[in-house]
Design a protein that fits this description.
By secondary structure, this protein is of the alpha+beta class. Helix content is about 45%, strand content about 20%. The chain has two domains: about 70 residues, Winged helix-like DNA-binding domain superfamily/Winged helix DNA-binding domain (Arc Repressor Mutant, subunit A); about 170 residues, 2-Layer Sandwich (Beta-Lactamase). A six-stranded antiparallel sheet has the order 5-4-3-8-7-6.
């Protein structure tokens, strides 16, 4: 979960402090102690203790014998987000068909600022253990879904990605803005994006955009597998066909 806390300074509002406490949790962390929440957020312990008590009353967090964990109410609220719920419902049959046809890991992701957020994942039966997870984030510039979303996005999003810095995650990561811009132009021309060991060594993927109208891409789908075994050119038509099917389904729901 991404923290919106600016510059490590705790916000002054009650709502801002409560959200800062919630976003202090990181992937794979079942619970945190009050001391750790104080350290990460900068919120004084007495204030954090009082706010957490109110969040407990709302079932947003739960107390354990050793700390605090996120509560069921957050999960319930997450399932109510209309845009992502509608997208997942429209995409479900196409993702399943793509998974059954390829037996590779299938992703559905949406843009969020300079990152992508995975909203669905079907784990491949013979591929690598991909670190992505539903609700997880990755940089847009070095992932297949991210490059597709950047290619079919307003120019301002690409400028924001470059301004944030292009970190070299692997030896193959594209970190030169000019080269990345050229690659995105090629993505727009062929309708799919390829990633070869740019985000993770040993992994490759092919991705295609999803549209709900004439505007920017609202989502992207991909298949991911071993770099030495998965042939992106072979699977690109299947990924693009699935993306087109989801796009038609979304237009039918909003038309």
């Amino acid at each position: 979960m991404r923290s919106t806390q600016p510059n490590g300074v705790a916000p002054n509002s009650v709502l801002g402090r409560a959200l800062t406490l919630l976003t202090a949790f990181r992937p794979g962390e079942d619970e945190l102690t009050l001391a750790e929440l104080h350290r990460r957020t900068g919120i004084p312990k007495p204030t954090a203790h009082r706010l957490l008590g109110e969040l407990v009353d709302w079932d947003v967090v739960e107390r354990t014998p050793t700390g605090i964990r996120l509560g069921m109410r957050l999960f319930e609220l997450g399932q109510l987000v209309p845009r992502q719920r509608s997208l997942r419902e429209a995409a479900a049959p196409f993702l399943t068909d793509l998974f059954e046809a390829t037996h590779e890991t299938v992703h559905l992701a949406v843009p969020d600022g300079i990152e992508v957020v995975y909203v669905q994942k079907l784990d491949g039966r013979r591929g690598p253990a991909v670190a992505s997870r539903v609700g997880g984030r990755m940089p847009a510039y070095c992932t297949g879904v991210g490059k597709v979303l950047l290619a079919f996005a307003p120019p301002e999003r690409f400028a924001a990605v470059v301004a944030a810095g292009l970190e070299r995650r692997t030896p193959r990561t594209v970190v030169a803005p000019g080269l990345l811009a050229s690659e995105l132009a090629a993505v727009r021309e062929r309708g799919v994006a390829l990633e070869h060991e740019e985000s993770t060594v040993g992994i490759t993927c092919v991705a295609a955009p999803v549209f709900d109208g004439e505007g920017p891409a609202v989502a992207a789908i991909s298949i991911t597998g071993w770099a030495n075994r998965l042939d992106p050119d072979r699977f690109a038509p299947a990924v693009r066909t699935a993306a087109l099917g989801i796009s038609r389904s979304l237009r039918g729901r909003t038309g």
